[in-house]
Design goal:
- This protein is α+β, with helices and mostly antiparallel strands.
- It is built from eight helices and 18 strands.
- Strand 9 and strand 10 (123-129) form a beta hairpin.
Length: 281
């Protein structure tokens, strides 16, 4: 199911033939908070079951009414995992007070978190889930999940850059990056007098003076479109890796995470549920 941010609907559990569960698990599965945070709410007296103050460790039946304060909560049918085509300008934060936060942008009716943050000016595939454990598994540094990015650079990417990226580069951290895979899609020369240039990516390439890139004596600059696959998630890693080989990233879009590929028919700002096949990949 594909949906825009204001059409995402919550699915609830059919309460028939379901056994009792611990209250903290019930609240966690409702997307309210983690089990540990649920225990704190219960201990603080903020949770009631059928109008009676809840106790730590108690179990509840599906038909019982659970409230936090005056708000009733319900367990969900299954975990939520969404693929989102994040547009530029949206911030990966769970803080709803941030005007441009991803959770505020999606306005999903239950507590969600993102998997693999993207910078504010980076577009592309972002996973959204209500399952914190899943997020941890997908993001664990030990797994070295492949992440592939499409980028436009100022500066001509050459075969020598491919070899440098393959070996890992120094981006100013304690250790060099793990080896990456760089592929050159195309390279072209642009006249710096043109104010805006539309690449195949749809990225707007600013003139060289505004971008801080020095033009050659003939008044032109070289640009490249590339694919870069990395296995880590360091701060601004793609931009810093390309800077390490003398190129400036002026457009960036994540197109895959592990086996999950950004659907071609998923427009910017839209989200859809992942299929069982995609989740099992």
């Amino acid at each position: 199911m594909q949906c825009s941010s204001n059409k995402i609907e919550k699915q609830f559990l059919d309460t028939e033939n379901k056994g009792p569960v611990r209250l903290n698990k019930y609240l966690s599965e409702a997307g309210v908070c983690s089990r540990r945070e649920a225990d704190k709410l219960i201990a603080a007296g903020q949770v009631t079951v059928d109008g009676v103050r809840a106790e730590t460790g108690m179990k509840v039946e599906p038909w019982q009414v659970v409230r936090i304060g005056k708000k009733q909560v319900s367990r969900q049918e299954e975990m939520i995992v969404l693929a989102v085509n994040k547009p530029r300008g949206i911030v990966c934060t769970e803080e709803r007070r941030e005007r441009d936060s991803i959770v505020r942008f999606l306005n999903y009716p239950v507590r969600i978190t993102y998997v693999g943050r993207l910078d504010k000016d980076t577009e592309g595939l972002l996973l959204i889930t209500d399952d914190g454990q899943l997020a941890h598994q997908l993001l664990s540094p030990k797994k070295h999940v492949d992440k592939t990015y499409f980028a436009v650079t100022e500066g001509k990417v050459v075969p020598e850059d491919i070899e440098k990226i393959r070996l890992g580069v120094d981006i100013g951290d304690e250790k060099p990056t793990l080896p990456g895979k760089l592929e050159i899609l195309r390279t072209w020369e642009e006249n710096v007098e043109r104010k805006n240039v539309e690449g195949e990516s749809g990225a707007v390439i600013a003139n060289s003076n505004a971008a801080g890139h020095k033009a050659d004596p003939e008044g032109s600059i070289w640009c490249s479109e590339i694919l870069l696959t990395i296995h880590e998630g360091r701060f601004h890693q793609v931009k810093r890796m390309m800077e390490a080989v003398g190129k400036k990233v002026i457009y960036l879009k994540r197109i895959s995470m592990g086996p999950l590929i950004l659907p071609e028919n998923l427009a910017k700002g839209q989200a859809r549920e992942l299929t069982e096949e995609e989740l099992a990949a």
